Amino acid sequence: MGGTDIERLIALLARLPGLGPRSARRAALALLRQPQTRMLPLAQAMEQAARAVKTCATCGNLDTRDPCGICADPARDRGLVCVVETVGDLWALERAGVHRGVYQVLGGTLSALAGLGPEDLNVGPLFARLEQGGVREIILALGATVEGATTSHWLQDRLARFDVPVSRVGQGVPMGGALDVLDDGTLAAALLARRPA
Amino acid sequence: MGGTDIERLIALLARLPGLGPRSARRAALALLRQPQTRMLPLAQAMEQAARAVKTCATCGNLDTRDPCGICADPARDRGLVCVVETVGDLWALERAGVHRGVYQVLGGTLSALAGLGPEDLNVGPLFARLEQGGVREIILALGATVEGATTSHWLQDRLARFDVPVSRVGQGVPMGGALDVLDDGTLAAALLARRPA
Lengths: 197, 197
Ligand SMILES: [Zn+2]
Ligand SMILES: [Zn+2]
Description:
By secondary structure, chain A is an alpha/beta fold. The first copy, chain A, has 8 helices and 7 strands. Chain A has 2 domains: 4-52, RecR Domain 1 (Helicase, Ruva Protein, domain 3); 62-168, Dna Topoisomerase Vi A Subunit, Chain: A, domain 2.
């Protein structure tokens, strides 16, 4: 089926989330049909992004610079920190354009099943920001899953010693639902309807 | 949302068949999280495949060599030529492992709507093979669509002057269906149940 180079390409594509073996083959074929105009540009964009990508030391976002574009933007309200599970959640909120503050990306949730404990969450920079002062509100925008709720409770405990109001996005996040599959309107509603945690 | 390099990557991924904007973002994130171990290898596989891919001058298959692995394989029966619309169809038949002969990839079908005429089909090499002799049977494995049927009829006309039996895959290809979405069993049944065209 087209040489080991082509088979290797299909195998690597098939490992991407959202692409099964069938769509990986379709994608590979589309690329192979236009090697110069389609495949090389994508390969080069990937290589460039792979070399340029950085994790923001402040918030955990992925960007080509550190601090990331959001943390570096003087127009963003540093006093308003929205805590999310993943970079995908951050991107979803940015697409919805509903949060004018900054973020903290935990990189996951507490999960006994997955063996993820507090030491696996990217919370240090958040505590550092709180200790530096200037944070007026923390919005917990974690998924409405068991793990999201557990993580929210644990975070509230840890945040109690700072005298900063903590709210949780409420109405709008469906039960059992992750944030990054929601439409922009739902995300906006959820953020507006936040309540004290 | 993560720098122009990252946005460009997402935009290019979103143009792949089977990947919408949402799955393109998910795929990009998965790659960005593992730039060294996941993204660079895929980029390099793409670049390698883009530089290596060739269209087989004999059959129209895409491979890293010309003649392709199938045409070059001494174990394949050169007397049995299976005519398919696309390289994807060829790959589907190869995965099913039901055809021990060689192929001719037309690269499309006759389509008034798409403005595709006989001159757009890759049939020259098939006629050349017939003129050279040694072809004992031609199997038309085109989709059971209006365009597939039109193309089959046109090809039969053109093939009539060669004294070679022409069969068509029959039972198994659902009406209106393309070949490359069928399971292996259906493909095998369709090929076994071929009948004179
Ligand atoms: Zn940042
Ligand atoms: Zn070939």
